[in-house]
Design a protein that fits this description.
Elements: H1 2-12, E1 19-20, E2 33-41, E3 51-59, E4 62-67, E5 76-87, E6 89-94, H2 104-113, H3 116-132, E7 135-140, H4 149-158, E8 166-169, E9 174-175, E10 196-197, H5 201-213, E11 218-222, E12 224-229, E13 235-239, H6 243-255, E14 259-264, H7 267-276, E15 280-283, H8 289-298, E16 301-303, H9 306-316, H10 320-337, E17 340-341, H11 359-366, H12 371-377, H13 380-385, E18 403-406, E19 422-425, E20 428-432
Parallel strand pairs: 2-5, 6-7, 7-8, 9-10, 11-14, 14-15, 15-16, 16-17
Antiparallel strand pairs: 1-20, 2-3, 3-4, 5-18, 12-13, 18-19, 19-20
Helix pairs in contact: 1-3, 1-4, 3-4, 5-6, 6-7, 8-10, 9-10, 11-12
Length: 436
């Protein structure tokens, strides 16, 4: 009953999903093809940084080819000769069901005073905001108490009921009993849980199976909590799961063909997560050199979420006030060591309206990446994290037609991504401010 209600309310906020340009058929049954003329093309493959006057053909929601030629006479063409064209952006760490949680009061109010259907409506709105900003794919790392409603929003988007990026979802996430909000309420009250409480090896395996069976693409767990800087200058924290519990989560997830993300802020939590064999470390300001070396050796991804660290620090105080400095230092060292760094903002930790997810890439450039490397962290690099390199992250034949455009060249100035003027997802134009 709850799932049907959530789906109905999500559908109620549907707006025009854009106009179809490359998925209709001609009268004789042939697929319709549209051509995009790019003044500058960043294809994301890592070769020639910017290709001038490229022609991208799109058919059946996919890229049919990229060339330097001309479109056939009379062919439908989208003229982006005055713009830079690049792959749709990917935000690998979001929370569409959160509206800011810098303080306990903000978080508690959402779980205690907002129904799951109402939160699903806001989630659909947030998904649309992300698409308008040029983010055609999100990895949404848990609903924070909204159960499996992220699967409903994903389904509504996939079916065209509401506009939004394609979603890779992790449903409930996991933490042991008593180690994640809501906390501190009378024992007489049965308050909501922000995660699925999981205790013991067998329950860990069961929780993975439950979440995957209900639609989770990724599994996420909280590796640590309670942060402080030690006399050694490192960010320390309390590890949540036992080694056996964490290993059971990872092993069962991998056995079922999925990947694991670990919230790990402290050196202790990161070490425990790496020992368990996770696929990505989220946040990570406490990274040590030894942990970076291990991540580079294993190919473990790091999603820094700098925007969120900056956003919540003033309200949370304590160790959070030093985390930006620690993360900046870690970022520079990780770059030199070859750690795979992927764009992720943790938006939802700060409110969606008025935010600009592209700001995350500003930090990466300020902290040592070239603009092109920052772009790759949000395109082909993020597609690799998602195990979607054959579908996403580049503009080449066979990939899904997720294409955006900016007036200026982000390979020269990353701030060009602050305003994405053209957005196509799966061959559907959702935004076009260049042809008003």
């Amino acid at each position: 009953m709850r799932t049907r209600l959530v789906g109905a309310l999500v559908a109620a906020v549907a707006v025009s999903a854009g106009h179809l340009v490359a998925q209709r058929q001609e009268p004789d049954g042939r697929s319709h093809r549209v051509f995009i003329r790019a003044g500058r093309l960043i294809d994301g493959r890592g070769g020639q940084p910017v290709v001038a006057n490229a022609l991208v053909s799109v058919e059946d929601g996919r890229i049919a080819g990229v060339s330097a030629g001309s479109a056939p006479p009379g062919a439908e063409t989208i003229d982006l000769t005055n713009a830079t064209v690049l792959p749709g952006l990917i935000d690998a760490h979001t929370h569409i069901f959160l509206q800011g949680d810098a303080t306990s009061a903000e978080y508690d109010e959402q779980l205690l005073k907002q129904s799951i259907p109402y939160r699903a409506v806001l989630a659909a709105r947030n998904a649309r905001l992300a698409l308008d900003r040029g983010f055609t794919t999100l990895r949404d790392l848990e609903t924070e108490g909204a159960m499996y409603a992220d699967v409903d929003v994903k389904t509504a988007i996939d079916r065209g009921e509401v506009p939004g990026p394609r979603l890779f979802v992790s449903t409930r996430a996991m933490a042991p009993t008593g180690m994640y909000p809501l906390l501190g309420y009378s024992w007489e009250l049965d308050v909501p849980h922000g995660v699925q409480p999981v205790d013991g090896v067998e329950n860990a395996r069961l929780a993975v199976r439950e979440q995957v069976s209900r639609g989770a693409d990724w599994i996420k767990y909280y590796a640590d909590r309670a942060y402080s800087f030690g006399a050694d200058g490192l960010l320390h924290g309390k590890v949540n799961f036992t080694d056996d519990e964490a290993r059971a989560i990872v092993d069962e997830t991998h056995r079922l063909g999925h990947r694991v993300a670990a919230h790990a802020m402290s050196a202790d939590g990161i070490a425990a997560a790496l020992k368990a064999g996770v696929d990505s470390i989220e946040h990570g300001p406490g990274l040590t050199d030894a942990e970076m070396d291990e991540m580079a050796r294993r190919g473990t991804y790091w999603v820094p979420t700098v925007m969120a660290v900056a956003a919540v620090a003033p309200a949370r105080g304590g160790a959070y006030l030093r985390m930006m400095e620690a993360e900046k230092a870690a970022f520079g060292r990780a770059l030199k060591k070859g750690v795979k760094i992927v764009n992720g903002t943790d938006i939802g930790a700060f409110p969606w309206p008025g935010a600009n997810q592209a700001q995350e890439l500003h930090y990466y450039v300020d902290w040592g990446m070239t603009p092109m490397d920052a772009i790759r962290s949000a395109t082909s690099g993020a597609a690799q994290l998602l195990d979607q390199s054959d579908r996403l992250g580049t503009i080449e034949a066979g990939r899904l037609a997720d294409i955006i455009a900016t007036a200026d060249d982000p390979s020269k100035n990353i701030s060009a991504l602050d305003h994405v003027a053209f957005v196509m997802k799966n061959g559907v134009v959702h935004k076009d401010e260049l042809h008003r």
